[in-house]
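Appendix B, Record 12. Input sequence as logged:
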Amino acid sequence: MPDGQHLGGFGAVLAAEPGDFLCKEAGVLLAEVVTVEERGGVRFVGLDAGYNVAPERFIYGAPVPVVLCRAADAPPAGPATVTGNINEGDDVWAEDLPLPEVREGDVLALLGVGSYNQSMYLAHCLRPPAGVVAFPDRRGT
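Logged structural output:
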């Protein structure tokens, strides 16, 4: 059918931002927990990946869903602030996140980073970009 024939009668214009619409959910950043500590009544969970590898939250303030890989369905142990490995105050993945009990060595999945995050990589503090693993033979169902 010609463009617009399906929705032409509604007088609607549809637009989508392709980076987010097509590939945001296809990207997951896996980061290791390198420190868990409580300071001033706040539980801090430090990761081995900072805003330089996926700067969308840092630049746009976009929330990043965070999941504990070994216990994604575990009940929260309380709120946590999840931070990165860049020594900057803005290197925060999540604040007041209801997160299960975590320990050093756990892996957290940061979801929805498949749009422009890799192309926005920052070489801050000479930290390398995140490695990429792609599965081109897999298709959504």
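Helices lie at 18-23, 56-60.
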